[in-house]
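Figure 6 in text form: structure in, sequence out.
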């Protein structure tokens, strides 16, 4: 199958899915655990401002997460789960860049 054919097939599946036809598309669901953002940040040893900057979010966003007013979703949730497992992961990657 050529790259064009592969992309075309993927687009056809996406259109079918958007129309409600679940039989023509593969649906992948990923579950990411919720983390205690304040605890994760504290384990890194960074201040709120430093931690927010290191993960590319505004300090206000981090404060909202830490105080439970909002919850991280999508890529931020995945990144925080990674940091929970290995607190130095961001610094290790940025140092190597």
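Output sequence:
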């Amino acid at each position: 199958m050529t790259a064009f054919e592969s992309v075309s097939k993927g687009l056809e599946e996406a259109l079918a899915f958007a129309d409600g036809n679940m039989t023509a598309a593969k649906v992948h669901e990923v579950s990411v655990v919720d983390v205690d953002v304040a605890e994760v940040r504290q384990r890194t040893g960074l201040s709120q401002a430093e931690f927010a900057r290191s993960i590319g979010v505004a300090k206000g966003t981090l404060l909202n997460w830490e105080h439970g007013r909002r919850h991280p979703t999508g890529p931020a949730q995945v990144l925080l789960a990674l940091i929970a497992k290995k607190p130095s992961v961001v610094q290790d990657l940025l140092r190597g860049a």
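Caption detail: The first helix runs from residue 3 to 18.
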